[in-house]
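Below is a filled-in request sheet from our internal design queue. Each sheet records the structural input a requester submitted and the sequence that came back. We keep these sheets so that new team members can see what a complete request looks like end to end.

REQUESTER: design group, bay 2
PRIORITY: normal
MODE: inverse folding
CHAIN LENGTH: 387
BACKBONE (tokenized):
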């Protein structure tokens, strides 16, 4: 999936949710109170669901996002007016930074050293906010009260506006440089939703509605991430074997299958290290994802890939597959050593076949493609054999 499409998909759903909740806030007077009063219960239900799914799929990032929202909701509900105001002030500044930080931190198991360190930092964050709520610092509050803009954004402080703008620009920069696309597009909408919800906090149900909006966006991103984990290869971002099996079940009467293998891949790993081997896999995957002619690339496992051509005869599919092979063989790959860069070239071999009446299922076709790949290897590599 290309970057532009990924950005569009990941930003569309959260933005749609944000628009719905914005309309609710602006038309709050027209909505029956019995419906609005359900918002906090729905918020807690969604939050518990987020925690459960996050734990099940080892996506602790989302646990560290949803718990501050729960604590904010509890604080706004049960703290005194003075303490709730302090919570609002600190949250409006820190939560966007918190979102950005946990976007950038690598995902690890909660009981790993990395996970324990993240948990300790998270607890420290909460402890500091609680401390300054009940034991306010005059110097810190004076700094937060500094006026930067001529116009008022009440109840938000100017420093909170600056923080939200800076975090938004960092997320946009990450989008431009093609980093963390799965998350940052959605996180950008979450930052906008959070700051917008706090700005409209003066309306009666804005707290419940804005936090519910955040919880639902978090859940939507989590579900999409869980889907990606199940069907996409994490290293190459190509669809994985499970996605291949699903798509093969949908094939029609005519299709072609290409099996692809990186030539001398073990030698790359042994000579340059596994990090370079991973970079080779990512480079080849990127090129394969650009295959034309209706082909779709998958990572099958190790250094093996599959290209499915639905409704394409083998003669045409061969042309598109061989074109990709040529593109890859002509693409220089820079390997960094201790003293210099070394330019190397990567080759692939492929075997391609069209389905036959003798094939009981697409896996039989794929087995024949694998046999054709073996012939390409035996014939000297860096070629595609059509069978």
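RETURNED SEQUENCE:
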């Amino acid at each position: 999936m290309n970057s532009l499409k990924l950005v569009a998909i990941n930003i569309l759903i959260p933005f749609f949710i944000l628009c719905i909740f914005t309309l609710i806030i602006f038309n709050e007077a027209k909505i029956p109170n019995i419906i609005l009063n359900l918002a906090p219960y729905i918020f807690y239900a969604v939050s518990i669901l987020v925690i459960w799914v996050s734990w099940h799929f080892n996506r602790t990032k989302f646990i560290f996002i949803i718990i501050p929202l729960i604590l904010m909701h509890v604080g706004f509900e049960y703290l005194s007016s003075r303490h709730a105001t302090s919570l609002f002030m600190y949250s409006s500044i820190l939560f966007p930074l918190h979102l950005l930080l946990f976007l950038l931190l690598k995902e690890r198991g909660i009981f790993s050293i990395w996970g324990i360190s993240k948990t300790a930092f998270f607890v420290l964050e909460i402890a500091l906010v609680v401390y300054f709520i009940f034991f306010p610092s005059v110097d810190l509050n004076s700094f937060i009260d500094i006026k930067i803009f001529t116009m008022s954004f009440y109840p938000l402080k100017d420093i909170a506006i600056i923080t939200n703008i800076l975090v938004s620009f960092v997320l946009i920069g990450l989008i431009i440089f093609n980093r963390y696309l799965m998350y940052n597009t959605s996180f950008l909408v979450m930052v906008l939703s959070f700051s917008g919800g706090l700005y409209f906090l003066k309306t009666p149900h804005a707290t419940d509605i804005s936090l519910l909006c955040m919880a639902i966006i978090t859940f939507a991103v989590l579900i999409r991430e869980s889907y990606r984990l199940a069907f996409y290869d994490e290293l190459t971002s190509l669809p994985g074997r499970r996605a291949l099996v699903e798509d093969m079940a949908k094939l029609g009467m005519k299709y072609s299958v290409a099996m692809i293998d990186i030539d001398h891949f073990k030698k790359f790993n042994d000579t340059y290290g596994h990090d370079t081997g991973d970079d080779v896999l990512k480079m080849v995957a990127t090129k394969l994802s650009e295959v034309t002619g209706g082909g779709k690339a998958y990572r099958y496992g190790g250094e093996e890939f599959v290209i499915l051509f639905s409704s394409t005869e083998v003669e045409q599919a061969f042309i598109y597959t061989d074109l990709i092979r040529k593109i890859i063989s002509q693409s220089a790959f820079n390997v960094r050593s201790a003293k210099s860069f070394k330019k190397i070239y990567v080759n692939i071999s492929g075997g391609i076949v069209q389905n036959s009446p003798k094939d009981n299922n697409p896996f039989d076709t794929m087995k024949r493609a694998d046999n054709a790949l073996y012939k390409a290897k035996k014939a000297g590599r860096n070629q595609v054999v059509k069978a």
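SHEET NOTES:
- The radius of gyration is 26 Å.
- The chain has a mean pLDDT of 83.
FILED BY: M.R.
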